[in-house]
Amino acid sequence: MDQLATTSPPFCKLNTDESRLRETGLASAGGVVRDYLGAFIQGFSVNIGLVSIFLTELWGCREGLILCGSKGLKHLVVEMDSSSAVQVIKGLKEHDSLATVLISDIRRLRAEFDSIIFQHIFCEGNSAADFLAEIGHNLSVGTTVYDSPPPGLNFFLKRDMMGVAFLRH
Asked: What are the φ and ψ backbone dihedral angles of 19, each rounded to 5 degrees?
């Protein structure tokens, strides 16, 4: 977050991630929005159903952009641990026809921000979003928004802010 704190105007950060159950193929996504100092603004989990990992990454990004837009945020850094999704969003890589609607939505939504940066982050730095993505499996289909961190999230928020690496499950 320290790079964001020195940026003018201050940027907020959206981290998103996906989760997919191996046994069933059911997917969920999650994300966390933080201010330029790293403080929690809002988070979300979305239970999607049976879709590919790539589409789940895009779905999570779209949900996060909708959330940030509804909060009136204008300057945003979006971090995802899928370099393929980031490349497709930036128009640097082709995508299959199944992703067309999600990509179109993301590109339309990004136009609502004064400035927006999409970048790849290694999964070890994206643990808070991963935590919220995994929660999504236990929720009803649809999106759940968190105005305060759900139990257990603060641990991962601190790890992400400190850059602590750990093995993911």
From this structure: -145, 140
Sequence-distant (≥ 6) Cβ neighbours of residue 10 within 8 angstroms: 4, 35, 36, 75
Say how many CA atoms lie within 13 Å of 97 toward its Cβ. Answer: 0
- Whether residue 48 is contained in a domain is answered as yes
Angle at 130 between CA 113 and CA 79, to 5 degrees: 30
Q: Is residue 167 part of a domain?
A: no
CB atoms within 10 A of CB 26: 18
Residue 146 belongs to domain with CATH number: 3.30.420.10
Number of domains forming the structure of the chain: 1
What CA–CA distance (Å, rounded) separates 18 from 20? 7
More confident call, 63 vs 5: 63
Among residues 125, 137, 114, 161, the alpha carbon closest in space to that of 4 is found at 161
CA distance 38 to 164: 15
pTM of the full predicted structure? 0.88
Q: Which domain holds residue 136?
A: 2-158
| Residue 139: alpha-carbon gap to chain centroid | 18
Tell me what pLDDT residue 95 has: 73
